[in-house]
Amino acid sequence: MIDYGLPVIDLHRHLDGNIRPSTIWDLAQQHHIALPANNAEEVSALAQIHDRTSDLLAFLKKLDYGVSVLADLDACYRVAYENLQDAKAEQLDYVELRFSPYYMAKTHQLSVEAVVEAVVQGVRDGEAEFGVKANLIGILSRTFGADVCQIELQGLLAHKGEIVALDLAGDEAGFPAPLFDRHFKQARDAGWSITVHAGEAAGSDSIWNAIKILGASRIGHGVAAKDDPELLAYLATNQIGIESCPTSNYQTTTLVDTARHPMRSFFDQGIAVTLNTDDPGVSAIDLAHEYKVAHDVIGFNKAELAQIQLNALEQAFLPEAEKNEIKKRKSTD
Ligand SMILES: O=c1[nH]cnc2c1ncn2[C@@H]1O[C@H](CO)[C@@H](O)[C@H]1O
Ligand SMILES: [Zn+2]
């Protein structure tokens, strides 16, 4: 259902939520890390989700297997590089990869700043090798609290020019946006764009806070906006994009019925919605799968999906000239 004649773009993909089970197995062997699995297939069963989990936090636990094998900087580099290989295999024209360097560094006590450097290098080498354009979004993992997030931010700011935006992810209900006010001020001062996970595990207030307090110009998930007409109007008028990830929403039990996913009404109300994968390695999906779900289950027709593909280019954290370049390249392909 993706039109490969139009730009193929994923704006919401966690590179640390997209670690291949085979790589998890490999790295565990290489570094003598014990896993409750005897081979790569058993790692898939352990670290991937095929139906649904009880809630967001149960879903996020699945990502822990992948980061538990990041024993050194080469492992971080490899994961970043393989994300570009995956992007190429999916025929993406452009991908925004987000990552939480503290989360990646934590198990083996790596330097946060060195993890950022390794990820940047893996992504740049992957871009050159596979010919896919990518940008990086830094994540503050709110689950670890405001002080740890300041350390995480410091590591990201050390590579300010290699990063285009800042995100806040993790336990939304337990760690609300106002706790991170000063972090996002520093990010805006650094010239970064802002996207925030909001309205996934908390209500529409959380989305308002992401916009008004943190300065978000895009919202990850944003499903809770469905109950707030004033917010819906605000999102449409101000062209604040919603990064929808339907399979992730199903697996986290954010929504119980994908057929009634609010991205339908967001779209109908003129909000710039996009389709994205979130954590494809954990969800065992790719971008094409999400377009198929949007068509077969949510009921978008081909023309509407084409508009969603164009929304992604519009909403990308890219300068106009680079957006035009992608557009031009597609039209002459
Ligand atoms: O769907 C999600 N909602 C909220 N946070 C998420 C989601 N997927 C991953 N992370 C969080 O992002 C960081 C790793 O990139 C981790 O903090 C992980 O918990
Ligand atoms: Zn996410």
Task: Walk me through the topology.
Elements: E1 9-14, H1 21-30, H2 40-47, H3 56-61, H4 63-68, H5 73-89, E2 94-99, H6 101-106, H7 112-130, E3 133-141, H8 145-157, E4 165-169, H9 181-189, E5 193-198, H10 204-212, E6 218-221, H11 229-237, E7 241-244, H12 246-251, H13 263-268, E8 273-275, H14 280-283, H15 287-296, H16 302-315, H17 320-332
Parallel strand pairs: 1-2, 2-3, 3-4, 4-5, 5-6, 6-7, 7-8
The site of inosine has 20 residues, from helix 3, strand 2 and strand 3.
Describe the protein's architecture and organization:
Catalyzes the hydrolytic deamination of adenosine and 2-deoxyadenosine. Substrate binds at residues 14, 16, 170, 279. InterPro entries: A_deaminase, A_deaminase_dom, Ado/ade_deaminase, Metal_Hydrolase. Belongs to the metallo-dependent hydrolases superfamily. Adenosine and AMP deaminases family. Adenosine deaminase subfamily. The chain is α/β, with parallel strands linked by helices and 333 residues long. The chain has 17 helices and 8 strands. It has helices at residues 21-30, 40-47, 56-61, 63-68, 73-89, 101-106, 112-130, 145-157, 181-189, 204-212, 229-237, 246-251, 263-268, 280-283, 287-296, 302-315, 320-332; strands at residues 9-14, 94-99, 133-141, 165-169, 193-198, 218-221, 241-244, 273-275. The chain is globular and about 50 Å long. Bound molecules: inosine and zinc ion. Inosine binds next to helix 3, strand 2 and strand 3. Inosine (NOS) binds at residues 14, 16-17, 56, 60, 63, 98-100, 103, 139, 141, 143, 169-170, 197, 200, 248, 278-279.
